[in-house]
Amino acid sequence: MSCTTLIVGKAASYDGSTIIARNDDSGSGKYDPKHFVVIAPADQPREYHSVISHMTLDLPDDPCRYSIVPDVLPNRGVLAESGVNEHNVAMSATETIAVNPRVLAADPFVAYDEATGTPGGIGEEDIITIVLPYVRTAREGVERLGALLAEVGTYESNGIIFSDADEVWYMETIGGHHWMARRLPDDCYAAIPNQLGIDGLDLDDAYSERRNSMCSPDLRDFIDEHHLDRTLSYNDHSPSHFDPRASFGTATPKDEIYNTPRAWFMQRHLNPSEDWDSPDAPYGPNSQDLPWARQPEYKVTIEDVAFLMGSHFQGTDFDPYGTTGTAESRHRYRPIGVNRTGQMTCMQIRPWLPEAYRSVMWISFGCGTFTAPAPFYANVTDTPAYLRDTPGKDASTDSLYWTNRMVAVMADAHWFDTDPLVEQYIEDVQVRGHELVEHTDRSLAEDADALADDAQPVALDAVRVALGEANQEMATWLQRRTQDLLNEVLLTASNGMNNAFRMSDHWTK
Ligand SMILES: N[C@@H](Cc1ccccc1)C(=O)O
After folding, report:
1. Is 34:70 a contact under the CB 8 Å cutoff?
2. CB-ligand 1 contact for 84 (6 Å cutoff)
3. Ligand 1 centroid vs 340 CA: distance in angstroms?
4. Which of 94, 318, 349, 355 stands the most exposed, by the fewest C-beta atoms within 10 Å?
5. Closest ligand 1 atom to Cα of 25
6. Under which EC number(s) is this enzyme classified (predicted)?
7. What are the percentages of helix, strand and coil residues in the chain, rounded to 5?
8. Does residue 79's CB lie within 6 angstroms of at least one atom of ligand 1?
9. How many CA atoms lie within 13 A of 174 on its CB side?
10. Please, what is the end-to-end C-alpha distance for the chain in angstroms?
11. Which residue CA neighbors atom 4 of ligand 1 most closely?
12. Using a 6 Å cutoff on CB, does residue 164 contact ligand 1?
């Protein structure tokens, strides 16, 4: 369990796009090499087999093309993790969460039974692969996954993020078959650690218009039958008079070390004028009642997302690289920017642009503290080798993933000497990234007539070629710049070795 999610509505983002981002972290002590690839319809399975739960699932015969950032090694299945399809629907799956024992007793997980060989249900390994290629809106994603959960069940608790050019939906599974989903208000963001977070569900809306809430068809009966509702009328803070977080979720001491501090720090950054640090602050790192969604004080940028996804409680006594507090306080809470991040993909969908080039995947590999996400257009037929051909086992400077991992290890060990080098790299990647996207958008707009409806098929292929070229240009620049950073950090770290000795045998220039 270790990811961190940040989602931003189109009226809360700097440019009117919807933005969803998640650190895809592996378990403690493990590191999963990642790459960026396109799955063509012909390569999508029609009969799907999962690894972990030994499940077989028939899939529709009409998948669309989609781009994902999966594991390189097949040992735990696909684990697509982050993806955008050619209809400009994005998914990030999953934010591992937890439900309380009452829920698990009422609706147990559907796990693989090794003794009998009985297959289990679906899980993180499968979710994007069996949903994203078949949906045209974020809502359809929620509906398809909800139906699959009811049909085959799941063996774990997950938060799943869906977005399109208009809406962001966040879905949480509840036990083995049940689920709920909230539409993120357009003017809000939600900062989500590994904890069931939805703090209000309008069941009346979910059973009628479904404007902002959706859920399992039998959720209301499930709640009543198993006495799961813990909302008390005289203490009802939930926006819709039913508090799922209190009813289905957890609020343990471990949550106050591992989860609530991350939500607190993200809200502290995006709502900076509030009191977050004094003894009288309404919320602290251990608060279990931080709002699920809230309006930011300023429009949220890609740089805000990148900073937070690589953050480590800067400016507080909890910063593992800090100089205030104590050795204990600096390692008290689990930072968002952690050593075992495999990839962070921030998916941005821009409604004002033609569908052909509406979606951008800002991708970084390795620990976000020592790198920055670079933009890659999603609607392409292939991806640059520097991000596609990550070796599954051997570190190599020929791939972005391994180069970032090597930089991070050395920069971590020599934090104060290398931080200026990393900060400059981050700024250079962000500047180049925005330059490339703006230039590419503009040059495609100048060919707008090529996108006229009657020229669609030919035009779309031409646009995909142009987007592929833009992605390659980004990757080529990124490879040179990242290699430069590796060289700089290596030199600095070499001079900082414990056996360094300033005297030389000959005073050389
Ligand atoms: N989804 C997990 C991380 C994870 C990734 C891949 C496989 C298993 C777990 C989390 O939220 O931390």
Report:
1. yes
2. no
3. 11
4. 355
5. 3
6. 3.4.-.-
7. 35, 20, 45
8. yes
9. 28
10. 52
11. 26
12. no
How far is residue 344's CA from residue 365's CA, in Å, rounded to a whole number?
6
Query: Which is it for the CA torsion 155, 185, 69, 301, positive or negative?
Result: negative
Q: Which two tokens stand for residue 37?
A: 């690839």
Mutate to test the pocket of ligand 1, among 24, 129, 160 (most ligand atoms within 8 A of CB): 24
Domain ranges of the chain: 2-351, 415-495
Q: Name beta bridge partners: 174.
A: 178
What atom of ligand 1 comes closest to residue 79's alpha carbon?
6
DSSP class of 70: -
**ipTM value for the complex:** 0.93
Q: Is the CB of 125 under 6 A from ligand 1?
A: no
CA dihedral 312, 296, 436, 374 (to 10 degrees): 30
Nearest residue (by CA) to ligand 1, atom 6, is 26
What is the best residue among 3, 91, 259 to mutate for testing ligand 1's pocket, by most ligand atoms within 8 Å of CB? 3
**CA atoms within 13 A of residue 29's CA, in its CB half-sphere:** 0
Pocket test for ligand 1, best of 72, 81, 122, 124 (most atoms within 8 A of CB): 124
Whether the CB of 97 sits within 6 Å of ligand 1: no
**Which residue, by CA, sits nearest to atom 8 of ligand 1?**
26
Residue pLDDT, tens place only, 108-128 = 999 999 999 999 999 999 999
d(CA 122, CA 125): 8
The label of the residue with tokens 């100048």 reads: 446
Q: Kindly name the residue from 3, 188, 346, 367 that is annotated as catalytic.
A: 3
Peptide bond preceding 371: is omega within 30 degrees of 0, i.e. cis? no
pLDDT tens-digit map of 212-269 = 999 999 999 999 999 999 988 787 776 677 999 999 999 999 999 999 999 999 999 9
Q: Active-site residue 215, yes or no?
A: no
CA distances 458 to 61, 429, 453, 455, 461, Å, are 24, 33, 10, 6, 5
Is the CB of residue 23 less than 8 Å from the CB of residue 368? yes
**Reduced 3-state DSSP string for 260-318:** HHHHHHHHHHHCCCCCCCCCCCCCCCCCCCCCCEECCCCCECHHHHHHHHCCCCCCCCC
In angstroms, the CA 435 to CA 481 distance is 15
Element (H, E) at 470: helix 456-495
Under DSSP, is residue 129 helix (H, G, I), strand (E, B) or coil? Answer: helix
